[in-house]
Amino acid sequence: MGPSTAPFTISLSGLPPAASVLGSCLQPAPAQTPVTIVLTPPSPVVGGGVSLAPQPPPENLVLCSWHRSATADEKSRILSYNPATSPPQTPGPAHTGRETAGPSCALNIAGLTLSDTGNYTVLIMNPGVLTIPVTLRVYEILPKPTVTPNQTQVLENGTFTLTCNSSPSVNTMLWLRDGASLVPSERLVLSPDNWTLTVLGVTRGDAGAYQCEVGNPVSTNRSEPSNVTVAYGPDSAQIDPPGPIALTLGSLLKLTCVADSVPAPSYRWLLNDTDTKETGSSLTFNLTTWAQQGTYECWTHNPVTGRTAWASVVSRYHCHGLTDRAHFWPCAVCGGCPFQCDSPPQGSTLSRGQAPPPPGAAPL
To answer: Where do the Ig-like domain residues begin and end (predicted)?
Structure first.
């Protein structure tokens, strides 16, 4: 029997076998300008479309096929394009209904989704065989990221960690505190992917509102603040006004205790080692008896840090003069001035400007 004279044909539905036959029969394409795949737009967005076009357009195009993989296998073939047939496009196993072929073997994809991201390959025959891989990345308009935890309280010199949660299509990630970007250091440590921020050896200056900002070629978005509070103090306390304090009967005395502490401390006031039952930062009262003079103490306590600080001030009565029968002796004497007694001695009076007798002397 003589040799077969059946004509040679190319199957559009099963491109790899045809490609194999052509690859053995056709010589490689002669040297020419390198062909690349140009994406339009260069940063395609979810819901939009994209065109993947060989540039420069192939000359003397015989056949081409697009594949959703890094290799030109039949299982991943999206479509084949033959400009000499009608219709010129033949769908393949990986065709989703959203892909069409354009002039010069361009692949158009509509209704993009994130799952369209990946490796693609075009096989071009003109009449040589050319295989060109390309990577398609589809971007989304980034939603607002979140930072967890959204509120943190940490002890001074402690450690805290924040995590940014966002879409996988993020290209850039930035951390900010009170609106200013943070620079990594020995204390400010970022994970390799920048998603986690760890602050070591916390100082009071590390308190503030932390945010993460994410971006990609088509959008940028910033999280709501995550508030970090640094608990510290009190290191010391002081009373305003400072002592010694000169008291006057009938006047108003207000003492204020000042202590730098976060959270705000609790307060406790003592007079001559006796609890006054006052728990505010200020102590206010009318001076009505000599028993209100002495040593006032303010005790402050931070329940988070466990630290306590206190301050004291000494107060003494100051006499500006005596009103007839207004003050009596003997009860207490300060600088030669007597103080009002709880029950004045019978018939004991002093006139304005009259000095009291020395202790032990008989009443007037």
So the answer is: 143-229, 234-314
Q: Is the pLDDT of residue 159 over 90?
A: yes
Residue 290 pLDDT more than 90? no
Which amino acid belongs to residue 294?
Answer: G
Is residue 278 within 8 A of residue 292, CB to CB? The reply is no
Q: Is-above-0.70 flag for pTM?
A: no
Q: What does the H/E/C string look like for 221-254?
A: EECCCEEEEEEECCCCCEEECCCCEEECCCCEEE
Q: Looking at the structure, do residues 21 and 130 belong to the same domain, yes or no? A: yes
Within-domain flag for 3: no
| 113 bridge partner residues | none
Distance, CA of 215 to CA of 291 (rounded, Å): 70
Closest among 53, 28, 14 to 125, alpha carbons compared: 28
Q: What's the alpha-carbon Rg for the chain, to the nearest Å? A: 44
Place of tokens 């967890």: 148
Co-location of 248 and 180 in the same domain: no
| 264 and 331 within one domain | no
Query: Which helix (H) or strand (E) covers residue 196, if one does?
Result: strand 196-199
Question: In sequence order, which residues have a C-beta less than 8 Å from that of residue 92 and are 6 or more positions away?
Answer: 13, 15, 65, 67, 74, 77, 78, 79, 80
What's the pLDDT tens digit per position in 96-129?
A: 999 999 888 999 999 999 999 999 999 999 878 9
